[in-house]
Amino acid sequence: MSTTKFTRSGTQTKTYVELLCTPSFGGGLHEIFTFFSAVHILLSITAFLTNYLIIVALHKESSLHRPSKLLYRSLATTDLLVGLVALPLYATYWMSLVQEHWSLCQYAFDAAYITGYALFLVSLMTMTAISVDRLLALLLGLRYKQIVTLKRTYIIVATIWILSLVSSLCALLDDRI
């Protein structure tokens, strides 16, 4: 996304990230940015630990239908990656503003945005798939286990991840998409 600024010397076009990673953006807000970074680090640790425990619990649980368990595991893995990758990238972005490392700021923001975008899409589509799975369990009754198979669920999970990654890469190429 570009913005156009008209100055006395002519027209200047900057991207959204270039505007966010400048001294004029964060002037005097270093304490707030440090607080944001600390919150992101705390949330990162919490998200990682809780979702790791969920994955371990799902591994030990045997009463769940295997396709449903796969969907829950995919959702927990997505949230684990948010805690392991996306939130630390956002913390890096905030701290790069405090330390005034402008090139790191741009890379951290881009990486955090793309990673967060992809993981958000995976999470949203996986929750939708879980809802559809539960609806099919209610509507199909005894036929549910013949129709909702592990192979079909693997295909759905793979499709969700591929679509999310392609969509986030498109956002990397042009953020107007």
Automatic annotation (TrEMBL):
Residues 50-177 form the G-protein coupled receptors family 1 profile domain. The chain crosses the membrane at residues 32-58, 70-91, 111-132, 153-174. SUPFAM superfamilies: Family A G protein-coupled receptor-like. The keyword Plastid does not apply. PROSITE patterns: G_PROTEIN_RECEP_F1_2 (PS50262). It is found in: Cell membrane. It is a multi-pass membrane protein. It comes from the Eukaryota. Keywords: Cell membrane, G-protein coupled receptor, Membrane, Receptor, Transducer, Transmembrane, Transmembrane helix. GO terms for biological process: chemical synaptic transmission; G protein-coupled receptor signaling pathway, coupled to cyclic nucleotide second messenger. This is G-protein coupled receptors family 1 profile domain-containing protein. The lineage of its organism: Eukaryota, Metazoa, Cnidaria, Anthozoa, Hexacorallia.
